[in-house]
Amino acid sequence: MKNFKFLSSLALAGMLTTGFMGTSLAAKTDVPTQPLGIYKKLVASKTVVPFILANRDDVVTIKDIKDSGKFKDITSFKGIAVPAEDTVVSTGDVFQADGVEYTVIVYGDVTKDGQFDINDVTTAAKAAVNLETIDDVQSEVADVINDGKLTVADVTHLAKYSVGLETNLVKDPPPAEP
Prior knowledge:
By secondary structure, the chain is α+β, with helices and mostly antiparallel strands. 29% of the residues lie in helices and 15% in strands.
């Protein structure tokens, strides 16, 4: 029964984030979404490019990847030609630049749909209590406490961020390559 109450509370938090008439109550910021760089470690044997969203309504686009300064010459995206710069990029999307394959991870985007919303919090909550299985990349983007594992503490942080009670999506961003 506790799991059901917890998920019901998360659903309520999701409703609060949309506010009245669909207006978000989450804090807005002028800080743009920025990549953290390329991980020194691999996640699920993939070289990943992690992004932290500027706010819960933000998304990562092809332009964000190009503007990061490391990936100006992207040759393919998801195995096909590079789409328009305003194309939304999701956790798990793959691109090639300078002959190297990179996997994008967007912290908070547990459902791999390119955005952060209550569905990500719910999926993380179910995975944290073993009601749903997620892959290593999803576990990485849900580990916003950055302690190497998905726990209820991560879910609590995600839920607080979703309603504007936390201003930083990731507590201690992981180290990136210089």
